[in-house]
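Check out one such.
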Amino acid sequence: MQRPTWATVVGIIGIVMAIYTLLASGAGLWVPQMISIQQRGVQMQRDAQRQNDKQMEQDEAAQKKEDKSADEDQAKQSKDVKVPDAQQKFADEGAKKMEAFSKEADKQMKQAEAAQNKVDKSFDEDQVKQSKDFNLPAAQQKFAEEGDKEMEAFSKQADAAQKQAEEQANEADKSFGEKQVKQLKDFKIPAAQQKFADESDKEMEAFSKQSDKQMEQAEELGDKQMKQAEEQANKTMALYNIPVWYGPIAVLMSLIAMAIAGFYLFASIWLLMTKPSAVPLFSLALVASAGFAILYGVVSMLAMPMMGMGMGMGMGMTGIFVAVVNVVLIIIVATGDKAAFQSQTAQK
C-alpha cells in the first residue's frame, strides 16, 4: 500500500528538526571553554582592581604626608613671624637712605665751615695789614694793636666754641641716626597686630583641619558609594556571566540532546520507509524531543537569567517553538490514517 501524504510531510519535517537539534546541541560542548575564558577575564579584572586600589592607597598616604608636612611648615612660619618681607625691605632701604643723607649733610656742613673760616681768616689778615700800614700816634697805635689782639683771641675762642658745638651736633646727629637705624632693623609687628595675626593663623589652622576632615568624610563616602556601585555592577554582570556549575551540566545535556536528535532522525527516516514500528518510534521521539527541549531551556534560564531564553533556544531548542512543532506533529500522527502501516504488518 502506498505511503500516506501526512507520513511524508511529517517525516521530512522530523528529519529537518532532528538535524537542527543535532547541530544546536553541539554548542553546549563549548560552554566549559567559555566559562574558562570568562573566569580568566574576571580574575584579570580583580587583579587590576586590587592594583588600582593599592596605588590609590599609596597616593592617598603620600598626599596626607605632604599635607601634614606643609601644615607643620606653615605653623612654624606663623610662630616665627616677624616683619613681613616687604616691610622689612622698606625699613632697610629707609635706614640706608637716612644714613646716606646724614653723611651728605655732614659733608656739606664741613665744606661750608671750611669756606667760612677761610673768609674770616682772609678778612682778619686784611684788617691786620691795614692796621700796620696806618700811621697813628703811638698811644693810639698801641691801643689798636691791643684791640686787634683781643679781637683775634675772641675770634679764635668763637671759632673753637663753634667747632665744639658743631662736633656735638654731629655726634648727636650720628647717635640719632644710629638709633633710628637700630629701631628700624629691630622693628616688629605691634602687639595688637601680632595678636590678630596669631588669631588669624589659629582660625586658618582650624579651618584647614575642618576642611581636611570634611574632605576625608567626602572621600570615605565616595569610596563607599563606589564600592556599592561596583558590587551592584558585579551583581549585574553575574546575571550575564555563565556560572561554573553550568559547564558540566551543559556538556551532559548536550550529549543527551544529541542522542535524542539521532533517535529523532532515525524515527523520521523509519516513518518515510513506512515500517510497521515507525509510528510508535516516531511518537516516542517527538515526546522525548519536546520534553527534553523544555528541560534544557529551563535549566539554561536558571543558569543565566538575563540570557537564558537565548541560550536555551540556541543550545537546546528550548521551549515553545520545539514544543509547539512536536505537539503539532504528534497530533498529525495520532489523527492520520495508519492503514498503510497496518497492511505492512498483515503482509508479514
Q: What stands out?
A: The longest helix spans residues 191-240. The CA atoms of residues 132 and 141 lie 9 Å apart. The radius of gyration is 60 Å. The chain has two domains: 5-62+240-347, 94-181.
